[in-house]
Design brief:
heterodimer; A: mainly alpha; 0% strand; B: 177 residues; mainly alpha; 6 helices; 75% helix; globular
Chain lengths: 101, 177
């Protein structure tokens, strides 16, 4: 267990999130892929805090802020999902083109 | 030695369950795979010595966000049904793009970390750098190294997000639709 191994792991997790973001059409599935990418970033933060030297506690503070922001984001996003469900009864991202000029 | 073995087991668990999250056709199964991914990364945080991050991961992500996602899944679709697949062109494009992202992230990361190499390779960070006591005193420290301003801003942000989510769900006319 060292820094390069952790960075490889988080890169792979982020790439999986990108893959899901591009292939999924259901809005909830897209949000879950987004969660994977955020999680990869958290692993990076923690790995650098653990192995990077310097101010380790400051590195451990950032994941807490990221989690709080993600919680707010997901609350809002799933609220939008609910509203769309009532309005359209389908939540495929390909069909959400109402703002298209 | 045993930490290395644990690390590789946890890493394999994270990657396998994350692959399941992005490939399974059933949205409910996908959400359960996300649960496994989040638990495995909490275990990884424990291995890295960041126990408070692991605790917050279990409480906030699994106890909060994932339950919310599961509710959304149950409310928006039949549990047994399959998701529609992406178009052929998009599916063909996604794999190279994801591979390129991985190469762009992992290549410099691997090289840079190897250059930093020896000095930090398992350098002894003080134990408990992410303990509840260390993080709590740092979060509420008003000094130059403290995080009290972002801490307070986050509380306002969460309140705004909750009010905004309620407004979106009910409709701005107070739910008279």
């Amino acid at each position: 267990m060292n820094l390069p191994a952790c960075l490889l792991l988080s890169s792979a997790l982020f790439a999986l999130g990108v893959y899901g973001l591009l292939t999924r059409r259901n809005l909830i599935a897209v949000l879950m892929s987004l969660e994977l990418m955020v999680n990869a970033a958290l692993i990076n933060f923690t790995a650098f805090a653990r192995f990077g030297g310097g101010d380790a506690t400051a590195g451990a503070v950032f994941p807490l802020f990221v989690m709080a922001v993600t919680a707010g984001e997901m609350a809002l996003a799933l609220g939008i999902v609910m509203a769309l469900q009532r309005w359209r009864s389908r939540i495929d991202v390909d069909e959400l083109n109402r703002l298209h000029g | 030695m045993i930490r290395d073995a644990l690390f590789y087991a946890v890493a394999a668990g994270i990657l396998i369950s994350a692959t399941a999250v992005v490939t399974l056709r059933n949205l409910f199964h996908s959400a359960l795979a996300l649960l496994a991914t989040l638990f495995a990364s909490a275990a990884l945080f424990l291995l890295l010595g960041a126990e408070m991050t692991a605790l917050a991961q279990v409480l906030v992500y699994i106890g909060g966000i994932l339950i919310f996602v599961l509710y959304a899944v149950f409310l928006t679709m039949d549990v047994g049904s399959k998701m529609s697949a992406a178009g052929k062109f998009k599916a063909a494009l996604a794999l190279p793009v994801a591979a390129a992202v991985f190469a762009l992230l992992a290549g410099p990361g691997w090289r840079g970390a190897s250059v930093m190499g020896g000095g930090i390779h398992g350098s002894p960070v003080q134990e408990g750098f992410a303990s509840l006591r260390a993080l709590g005193s740092r979060l509420l420290d008003p000094g130059a190294n403290g995080f009290i301003v972002p801490f307070e801003i986050v509380s306002v942000l969460l309140l705004a997000a909750l009010v905004g989510a309620l407004a979106v769900v009910r409709g701005l006319d107070g739910g008279k639709d």
